[in-house]
Amino acid sequence: MTTHGRELGGEHVQTQLRGDEGDPVPPEVDELRASFPRQSDPGFASRRSQQARSARGGLMAAGALVALVCLFVIVGRLNSGTQASVGTAMYCVSLASAGLSVELARRARTRLAMMAIILAAAGASLADAMP
Predict the structure, then answer these.
(1) Strand ranges (E), 9-76
(2) Which residues neighbour 56 within 8 Å (Cβ) at sequence distance 6 or greater?
(3) Spatial separation of the C-alpha atoms in residues 70 and 62, rounded to whole Å
(4) Which among 10, 48, 8 is positioned nearest to 28, based on CA atoms?
(5) pTM score > 0.85 for this model?
(6) At 112, which helix (H) or strand (E)?
(7) Distance (Å, whole) CA 38 – CA 33
(8) Which secondary-structure segment (H or E) carries 4?
């Protein structure tokens, strides 16, 4: 490995050539590479997995709560003696979306699970406006 100097904006910059590649590497890159192992945190991976586990649990609980509310409303509407309407069908769709969010969260698809919970809650809100 050879070291070459060059002028850059009035200051002298040392660069190193990598083997036969001929691409200059600034000295900051080698300093970063040398300092990277010192910065490693042994607890980082465990904290991150704990946060992911907690997020999945929270999303599963939120999806189950929305599904439970939809289920109670559906049963209440059907037991009241009125015919099933568009609002009841919308609650059924919201129930399915909330159930899907629980399964997505269980499979660690948290972004999709959050989207399914939002759609379920929005559908349940719209179902109240329908007859």
Answers:
(1) 11-17, 24-25
(2) 105, 106, 108, 110, 113
(3) 12
(4) 8
(5) no
(6) helix 110-129
(7) 10
(8) strand 3-8
pLDDT in tens, 48-92: 888 889 999 999 999 999 999 999 999 998 898 777 788 889 999
Q: Quote the pLDDT of residue 125.
A: 93
Scan for tokens 């100097």, then name that residue. 5
What does the alpha-carbon distance between residue 1 and residue 42 come to, in Å, rounded to a whole number?
34
Rounded to whole angstroms, how far apart are CA atoms 17 and 20?
Answer: 8
Measured distance CA(68)–CA(62) in Å, rounded? 10
Alpha-carbon distance of 125 to 66, in angstroms, equals: 11
Beta-bridged to residue 15, according to DSSP, are 4
